[in-house]
Amino acid sequence: MLILVLVLASFRITRFLVLDTLIEAPRGWVLNKLWGNNPGTFKTWLHELLTCPICLSVWVSAGTVALTAQWVSIPVPVLVWLGVAGGVLVAWRVVED
Predict the structure, then answer these.
(1) pLDDT digits over 29-46, tens only?
(2) Distance (Å, rounded) from C-alpha 26 to C-alpha 96?
(3) What range defines the domain where residue 36 resides?
(4) What pLDDT sits at residue 49?
């Protein structure tokens, strides 16, 4: 049950960060600053991370698992993280396609 809650929370947070219109202007400003006139390797990587829902969902999943582990005992958190990240990818496929 906890993994399902983490999957749904990670999916929603990722969707909010990548697609929702509520933060469209600040997100556009950050992406323009990253891309700018002189994109470097790190800036290009960071830009791709912030615009790719699949890429970002892996790191959002890591954050939700790490944050949840502060209050709930999670056995083998790395495996839970990978399970949550995989669940988010399934959610993206079902909901967004």
Answers:
(1) 888 887 776 666 777 788
(2) 23
(3) 2-96
(4) 85
Number of domains composing the chain:
1
Distances (CA, A) of 12 to 36, 60, 76: 28, 10, 24
Residue 37 is predicted with a pLDDT of 67
- Per-residue tokens: 41: 């390797």
d(CA 68, CA 75): 12
pTM: 0.84
Q: Could you tell me the two tokens for 15?
A: 């969707």
Task: Give the burial string for 20-59 (b: 16+ CB within 10 Å, else e).
Answer: eeeeeeebeeeeeebeeeeeeeeeeebbeebbebeebbbe
Q: How far apart are CA 37 and CA 30, in angstroms?
A: 13
